[in-house]
What does this fold into?
Amino acid sequence: MITWGSYLRGFFCNPTRNTYLCVVEIYKKDIRKLSLSELEEFFVLQGEKKFRAKQVYEWLWNKSLKNFDDMSNLSLPTRELLKIHFSINHVRVDLMQHSQDGTIKNAVKLFDDKIVESVLIPTTKRITACISSQVGCSLDCNFCATARLKRMRNLNPDEIYDQVVAIKEEAETYFQRPLTNIVFMGMGEPLLNYANVLDAIEKITSPDGLGMAPKRITLSTVGIPKMIRKMADDQVKFNLAISLHAAINETRTLLMPINAVNPLEELEDALRYWYLHTKRKVTYEYVVWEGINDDERHAKALAKFCKIIPSKVNLIQYNPIDAGEFRQASQEAIDLYVKILEGQGIVAKIRKSRGQDIDAACGQLANKNEVAQLHPQNNP
It folds into this structure.
């Protein structure tokens, strides 16, 4: 029987005695790929009341339910009908690692057994979820462990949403506090998965979803000018952060090869467009490395770049990914940056990394663990 939400995949064996064997697999469609109107259409075609769609939609996105059996306000026949036609391909946390500073890193297994990582970052005032948007990454930032992974695919909106739900539950379980902030600073470049990321954010912020305020969400990007312009055109309500690390083209291209095709001049134009249309400042994420950008020339270039539009700077501690060429700059160099930036009236904050002992800090997410061998029940 071919169901409403299923599709076929088939293949033929080599001919044997002039016959062919056809093997057909039937896959149920993930119900969360359906919009509310498509759910309504399904129920009407099945002879059910249209309002059932709203009930199911609330179970899926507001209450984050993982199976049909728990949809208690639906009749048993209706639940069985859903199970016949659909699946719910929720993610699973295969490994949860706890840092000495309270940070939690999740190795998240997707429906196709691929793995991404997400991080819960607790501080005294907030609990932040650091979320991945792609399996691997197609960019080649030389200082980032994720960049060494092959980009395998984009994450679906529900897979992004599920990461947030998992961390929300961990915040309540381990800290008895709510999740307060979300940053798209995990694996992948969010603007190269634009449609799915925006769809996920809509589910996260909608009253019918998790109901989080858009101002609590920050999207971090290497700075893809045409996509920054598109965000401005789309009037997104979340915050924008740029992974900058150098305001001199030669240095930035050394660190981030994408700068060769999207140089700082184009990024500057896109940021002006962003501010013109949104009137919202941007945050620059900036790591200072020894012998690379730890001098007065680079600090002054950053201060000049910060004048393009209202902005602030997060000076981020470097987290080594090997014994290679990148080394954290001295405290004197960091202090020099702060002095020059603050002297120009620019807000500069020094951000200490968290979760380094479990490779959960910025730039360290790289799926080091062999997830197939993990047993999460043995983890603290």
Summary: The longest helix spans residues 157-174.
